[in-house]
Amino acid sequence: MRILILGLDGAGKTTILYRLQVGEVVTTIPTIGFNVEQVTYKNLKFQVWDLGGQTSIRPYWRCYYSNTDAVIYVVDSADKDRVGISKQELVSMLEEEELKNAILVILANKQDIPGCLSVTEVHRALGLEALRNRTFQIFKTSAVKGEVRLVEFIYRSDLINCDQKWILKTITIKWTLDDR
């Protein structure tokens, strides 16, 4: 299973990747290029690619689209000035033929920051109501304060060589915000 984590620089992609992998917050630096890690959930193994989100790196995202089963698109809910740029990048990504069957999960991250956009405001700002022929889910998150648990995967093993090839149908990610 191949999953891409995409979004603008500073959105929290790398923090999310390592919360998924090791279950805790690790110190990160801006990603120049990519990080790739294997995340295991029960007996399923996922290859998760965290791609840098700087302006100079975004044009290269498309080089990683081939054979992608799901995209986790991370939005910095506290960065109101760049949500329009985030929308442009999301729209551009969704126009790519190689991602037409990929599941889309949008994380409205940094919900722990006062004054951030709500998940409803992020939904509206990204124009998600226009996504009619695409399976997607949006979640409010806090990568730093939240607890990441991969809760439910609905998968099929009867396709593509029948062995350990899994096709992701739905991803549900549960984040429990820490009230401390």
UniProtKB/TrEMBL annotation:
TM spans (from-to): none
Listed InterPro entries: P-loop_NTPase, Small_GTP-bd, Small_GTPase_ARF, Small_GTPase_ARF/SAR
Binding positions for GTP per the UniProt entry: 7-14, 53, 109-112
Gene Ontology MF annotations: GTP binding; GTPase activity; metal ion binding
Family: Belongs to the small GTPase superfamily. Arf family.
Database matches in PANTHER family: ADP RIBOSYLATION FACTOR-RELATED (PTHR11711)
NCBIfam families hit by this protein: small_GTP (TIGR00231)
Protein name as annotated: ADP-ribosylation factor-like protein 1
Organism: Trichinella nativa
